[in-house]
Amino acid sequence: MADPNPRNSVNWDIQEGGHRGQWTRDGEGGKDEQRFIHFAGDQMKIHYAGNYVYVERYKPGDLHFYHGTISSDKRSITGKYLISSIRGEHSWSAQINY
């Protein structure tokens, strides 16, 4: 692929805290937003702004907010996330699969 674009990705291999799994694209989405399903089955919205991503994860009883930076080769993301019921930021990363 000549110029990969995370908006065209199929899924992301994720590490968040001590957990590993996959976020899978759920439909087409718009130019600056996509819907994904978390490996735990939760609905997610991913928003893009240049090389920056902001993710909202809807988990019963909690909201999770992720932010991260897309690498220059557009194949990975690193960032932090917050959980509404827990204090502090936690690290997450993704390998983007096209």
Strand content: over 45%
Mean pLDDT: 91
Cα Rg: 13 Å
Number of helices: 0
Number of strands: 8
Main sheet attributes: strand count, strand direction, barrel closure: 8 strands, antiparallel, barrel
Structural class: mainly beta
Low-confidence stretches: none
Strand order of the largest sheet: 1-2-3-4-5-6-7-8
Shape: globular
Structure description:
The chain has strands spanning 11-16, 19-25, 33-37, 43-49, 52-59, 62-70, 76-83, 86-97. The mean pLDDT is 91. 0% of the residues lie in helices and 63% in strands. By secondary structure, it is mainly beta. It is built from no helices and 8 strands. The chain has an 8-stranded antiparallel β-barrel.
Topology:
Elements lengths: L10 E6 L2 E7 L7 E5 L5 E7 L2 E8 L2 E9 L5 E8 L2 E12 L1
List keywords for this structure.
mainly beta, 8 strands, 98 residues, eight-stranded antiparallel barrel
In short:
Helix content is 0%, strand content 63%.
